[in-house]
Amino acid sequence: MLRRSVVVIAALASILFVPARVEAQTAPAEIRIGHPYAGSGPYASISMPVYLGLKLWVDRTNEAGGAFVKPFNKKIPLKLIAYDDQSSTATAATLVNQLITQDHVDMLVSDSGSVLTSVAVPIARDHKQLLFNPTGTGAAFFTKDNPYVVLLADPASTVWPKYISELLGNSAKTAGIKRVALLYATNDFTGTQASTIRNYIKAHADTGLELVYDQGVPTATSNYTVLINNVAATNPDAVVALGYVGNDIAFLRNLQDSGQKFPFLFMIYPGVEKEELLKNVGATGMEGVFTYAMSTEIEYKPNFGMTAAEYKKAWHDTYPDGKYEFGFNAIAGYTVGLVLERTLATTESLDQLALRAAVQGLSGKLTTLDGPFEVDAETGAQLGEITPVGQLRAGGKMEAVWPLDLANGKPTFGKK
Amino acid sequence: MHRVFNDLGLAVLVVVAMAVAPSIYSNQLLLFNFVMFLSLAQGLNVIYGFTGYLPFGYVGFFGAGAYGFALAVMHLGFGPPGAMAVGAAAAVVLALILTPLFRLSGAYFAIANLAAAQAVYEVVANPALEDVTKGPYGVSLSGVFAPNASYAAAVAILAFTLLLVVWLRNSQFGLSLRAIKEDPISAAMAGVSVVRGRTIAWLLSALIAGLVGGSFAWEVSVFYPETAFSPQFSIFAVVFALFGGTATLTGPLLGVFILYGVYNWIGISVPQYFQLIYGTLIVALVLFLPNGLVSLLTRRGIRVP
């Protein structure tokens, strides 16, 4: 009897205590997060803020004892393994491979932008490693047959121009803004947006919208003087000029110098990296410009993580030298960290497809300072972080003007 | 004959080492990059080391090979071997078109060649050709993505390239090329067909870059024009070949193994010192060993394979 009791107690004890002991043994000493970034070269301006935002999240999480990891039911410190790819795709590809095969990272975060992300997508897929993609919005990355990529902090390129297209359509009906000139830098990010806007204008010709100028220029374009004259010669009501930060700075400076005015001018970066543009162009040169009103301008109420104002203060406290301005990409890096944190807190295991399922589980439930987080279950593209349209006022202030449910101001149009 | 066996022995050793390397070290893409630069540095060696013409725009042939591969897959439905052949043919055709550049020499040739590569890039990246090349928006060849097969193809290309250099070093044709490099007028007076010789070397060099470009497209499968036409490929190939020493088999090999090895070691371990260490290495080479590492032996009369 006693012997049987001992056996039963031993069996119960093994059920009760052994799994806990096994978990304690198998819990990793740290969660390894791999991230290539561009410390120099043409992509440094968009990559460094993402890296610094992610690093800020890692440091703060570790100060709090690490991230809670559900499969081990405890907090585990994070280790960020970051390599500088110097904006080289060949180096980025090698480093992604290094992170997967040599460093055996638990979570892989790709570099910023479509060009540097492009090389990571097939490698991650080949190694069955989920690629946490901050801002690589190229539509070609997101296919139904690849579950190993998910876009976290930017909507897909095709989603970006949704509201500017709608505003154009509305302005055609209500304000006679009908003749549209489209000038864009020929890269994946802006080219895809140009294509979406072009298709919208063609599909809504009944509103009177008409494309009077449609020109792609190299992304390296740094002088727009002749192009501005060419655009003005078509007598447009609206000019949609899509480029990267450097393009937008050059365009706005040249526009100021030329003295030319357009009733409606839309550009991407006056809203996305406003502080950078204010520093290089000045508030006067940006007044009246329509742009994306990003999370730097629209205060979302996050249900996880800091608010934009809190994060902006944390950013300036952590990086007081001002080498990299606070902007949308800084928010994107921190947003990636928040998604990683919630993923670890809800995943069933550190298996890569389990992580993907956990990210999907956040879709529609998570709201960060970057807005609502919503992932396309089939492709991994980001659909939730919307891009409302704002308009810059005197002194660099911005008002959201479209869609109406997010607007805190009304669009105003200049004279021809 | 002893010399040929020495050269062949070294070539076989390198090819076998790179063929078995993935079973020892799992970062296969890094190994692929080594194989790619070994071939590119030797391809550049064929034209620069043997004839003295330095093509700064060597990446033009590489990009033509990559895009030839991509177009054959996207529009002709070719499998990777056929697409590699198309890529190689595209590079050779481009080289034929550019043969008038041989009217120039020295820095003028190098700069004109760089401009030609840039022109090809602008054509490929032109948005008006989006239906053909996908313009600046990049190509996706995920349907043929097969890293093990593309690595094997790259090793095969390396074997072909090294055998070609062994042949050039030990054949009458290779000797005639070196005569052209030393003094084209004297070589012509001695009966060497200067135009024919350097044109063949030019086409062979382009063929190698085209094949390597094709294998690169196959390996990465998603790329943009600025990726395939990145000046980094030309710069690395030139620097690696010069660092080791041109007109030899060993020089470019040493250049790639040492410099690209250091490049990756710095990039991973101490990236903050990257420019300092790499720059110091290259400045030291230019100051103290302008003819490359192999000159340490050759100036003592020792023959280097």
Give the structure's gist in a few sentences:
The complex is a heterodimer of chains A (416) and B (305). Chain A is an alpha/beta fold. In chain A, 43% of the residues lie in helices and 17% in strands.
Explain how this protein is built:
The complex is a heterodimer of chains A (416) and B (305). Chain A has helices at residues 2-26, 44-63, 89-101, 114-118, 120-126, 162-175, 188-203, 225-233, 245-258, 269-272, 274-280, 283-286, 308-318, 328-346, 352-362, and strands at 31-37, 67-69, 74-76, 78-84, 107-109, 131-133, 149-151, 179-185, 210-217, 238-242, 264-267, 290-292, 367-368, 371-372, 389-392, 398-402. Chain A is of the alpha/beta class and 416 residues long. Chain A has 2 domains: 28-156 and 298-372, Rossmann fold (3-Layer(aba) Sandwich); 162-295 and 388-402, Response regulator (Rossmann fold, 3-Layer(aba) Sandwich), CATH 3.40.50. In chain A, helix 7 links the parallel strand 8 (179-185) and strand 9 (210-217). In chain A, helix 2 (44-63) packs across helix 14 (328-346) and helix 14 (328-346) packs across helix 15. Chain B has 305 residues and is mostly helical. Chain B has one domain. In chain B, 75% of the residues lie in helices and 1% in strands. Chain B is built from 15 helices and 2 strands. The two termini of chain B are 13 Å apart. The mean pLDDT of chain B is 92. The A-B interface holds A 39, 83-86, 88-91, 93-98, 101-102, 114-115, 118-119, 121-123, 125-126, 138, 140-141, 143, 146, 186-188, 191-192, 216, 218-219 and B 26-30, 33, 122, 125, 127, 135-138, 140, 142, 145, 147, 220-224, 226-227, 230, 232-233, 264, 267-268, 271, 274.
